Amino acid sequence: MSWRKEERRAERGYHHGNLKEALLKAALDLIAQKGAAGFTFADAARMAGVSPAAPYRHFRDRDELLSSIAQRGFEQFEARLTAAWDDGRPDTVTAFERVGKAYLAFARAEPAYYSAMFESGLPVDVSPALMAASERAFAVIRAAAERLAALAPPGTPRPPALMMALHIWSMSHGVASLFARGDAARRKLPMTAEDLLEAEVLIYLRGLGFPIDRRASAQQGQADQKPSVPPAGPPSGAPSGPWGTPK
Question: What is the pTM assigned to this prediction?
Answer without folding.
Answer: 0.78
